[in-house]
Amino acid sequence: MDFSAGEDMRPQKLPKRIARRIVEHIISHDLGPGTRLPVEAELGETLGVGKNTLREAMRLLESWGVITIRQGRNGGPVVRSPQPRDVREALTVQLLFSSASLQGVYEARCCIEPHSAMMAAGRLPDTGIQELRSSVARMRDFVDDTPVFLAENRRFHELIAAATGNVVMQAFIDTLKAVFDGSSAGVNYSRGVRLAVADAHERITDAVASRDTARAAREMEIHLREAGDYWGKQGRIRLGYVTWEG
Questions:
Q1: Which of 25, 27, 129, 171 is the most exposed place for a label (fewest CB within 10 A)?
Q2: Overall average pLDDT of the 224-239 stretch
Q3: pTM of the model
Q4: Are 161 and 123 in contact (CB under 8 A)?
Q5: Using 50, 70 and 90 to split pLDDT, how confident is the model at 235?
C-alpha cells in the first residue's frame, strides 16, 4: 500500500502525522468500513517507522473512530466509518472541565434543533418520513416501557438530525441530545408526559411530511420549550451540570 507523502515529519509529532497519513490514504483510496489494513510489521516497514510510533498512531486512529483493532489470529486494524456520535465523549470531557451547566446545553439545543427540523422538512425523502411515523408509533406502543420509550425518543431526534444531510449539525445535535435529554439528569416522565412527547413528535412529523419548513421549526421549538419547562419544574436544569452519560 502506498502511504507516501511529501511533507517532512518532525519526530515530536510523528505518531499524529503517521495517523493523518493513514487517514488520507483511507479516504483517497475509498476504503470502506471492514477493509483490513496491513499487519503491524508491514505497515511499519511501508511507513518507515518503529513499532512504538506505529502503535501510538493506531491508538490515535482508534480514538478518532477511524479504525477498530481486532484481536486474535486474524486480528489487526480494520477500517470503520466515524459516526457523528463519536465526538460525544470528547465534547462531554470538555464540558465537564468547563463546569458546563445543563441550562447551557438546553439553550444550545433550542438554537440548533428547530433549524434542523426546518432543514429536514425540505430534504427528508418519503422513506424517512415513514421512519419518523414508525418512531412515533413505537413510542406510543411502549409508553410504559421506560428503556424502549427513552431510546425511541432519542432515535426520533437522531432521525431529524440525519435528515438535514449536514454531518456537522448531526454531530452537534446527536452529542447535545446524548449529553442532556432530561432522563440523563434524572427527570422522571409520567405516562401523561410521555404521551405528550409522542404527540409533539407527531406534530413535528406532520409538518415535515407536509414540507412546511416554518411549521416544522416552530413545532420543534414548542416541543423543546415544553420539555424545558418540565425539566425546570423539577429543578434539573437550574441546578444541574453536565455529567458522564449512563
A1: 27
A2: 78
A3: 0.74
A4: no
A5: low
